[in-house]
Amino acid sequence: MTQQQSSDFGFGTQIRKSPFFDATVRWGASGFSVYNHMYIPRDFGDPEQNFWNLIQSAILCDVAVERQVEITGPDAAKFVQFLTPRDLSSMAVGQCKYVILTNQHGGILNDPVLLRLGTNHFWLSLADSDVLFWAQGVAVHAGYDVTISEPDVSPLQLQGPQSGKIMQSLFGPEIADLKYYWCRPLQLDGIDLIVSRTGWSSEIGYELFLRDSKDGDRLYETIIKAGQPFDLRPGHTSTIRRIEGGMLSYHADMDITTNPFELGLDRFVNLDMEADFVGKDALRQIKSAGVKRQQIGVVIDGVPLTQPNTRFWDMSIDGMVKGKVTSAVYSPRLEKNIALAMVASDHAGLGAKFLVHARDGDRMAVAVEKPFYDPNKSIAKG
């Protein structure tokens, strides 16, 4: 690994930089995109090599863009349940859960990971949308006694098969007891953290939530140093691996016009629980009527895609558009072009064939099972 001199990136002060920004530039980040009004590193060189680094050893990713919405106060538990159709009645302190946030029409606003840090203390670790303002507005309108804010919290992701060994070198052997989708407060050389067994990679991994931004550079360098014997590399979230694992990206695979049933996320919706939540009546009606479109996995023919799609590609049958490719990439492990797509329900069955109007021309595609790799998430669960 080589370090490079920090350069000045910027569209202006309205786009925030994470506490790890300078460290990522020193360690090779040369391109960024914007997510939750903050820069996220998206280029450490060859994205295919980043993928192999992830699945063969480990990568460290700056994901401070996963901003936290902190919810505290006497009604915090009731209010968090009001935001999501997932039943949280059995959620314990120290547990994490993937949740969906819906609006009054049943549309998806965000799909964060929820962390329960105390009886009435929660974090929503966000995908790319402004949930802070939504939650504050809902709380005022519904009359809940809660305090909602964005704390000074910034996560790093340490992901890959060597991540457990690196974590043990940092925190000791007891960190191996941390279960999948659980979290605990820890300190590392005086740096206050919440550490969770989560991550957006489909690989085994951890997230380290920094609780004071002034320690960002020191935390990043400490982890990099500890990981060198285990071939840890600085990196970025892998589009290849997340599509292999069927992981969804907000604004790409779903948005406010998408409902959970279209995505096959029925298991995260409990319409029978006593607790009310935003969008409950709408989701009941949607389920009763049935969905008109569904997300599917497809394999796209032809030469390897040279980069992920940057716009939606229409999918047609006999000249009629029946859906769109939302996320597409070439998987060097599977040696296939794989994609997630949203298509008319009448054409969502396995084996359905489409003509994809890709950037480089028309290609044939066929509907297949998803996720494309490790469908039971046995790797991530460890």
SSE topology sketch:
Elements: H1 21-26, E1 31-35, E2 38-43, H2 47-56, E3 58-62, E4 68-72, H3 76-83, E5 96-98, E6 101-102, E7 108-110, E8 113-118, E9 121-125, H4 131-142, E10 147-149, E11 154-159, H5 163-171, E12 183-188, E13 191-196, E14 205-210, H6 216-227, E15 232-235, H7 239-244, H8 280-289, E16 293-300, E17 313-317, E18 320-331, E19 336-344, E20 353-358, E21 361-368, H9 378-381
Describe it:
- The chain has 382 residues and is α+β, with helices and mostly antiparallel strands.
- It folds into 3 domains: 21-65 and 152-242, Probable tRNA modification gtpase trme, domain 1 (Gyrase A, domain 2); 68-149, Aminomethyltransferase beta-barrel domains (Alpha-Beta Plaits, 2-Layer Sandwich), CATH 3.30.70; 292-382, Aminomethyltransferase beta-barrel domains (Elongation Factor Tu (Ef-tu), domain 3, Beta Barrel), CATH 2.40.30.110.
- 20% of the residues lie in helices and 31% in strands.
- The strands form 5 sheets. A 6-stranded mixed sheet has the order 12-13-14-11-3-15, sandwiched between helices. A 6-stranded antiparallel barrel has the order 16-19-18-17-20-21.
- The longest helix is centred in the middle third of the chain and has 12 residues, at 131-142.
- It is globular, with a radius of gyration of 21 Å.
- The protein starts with 20 loop residues before the first helix and ends with a helix.
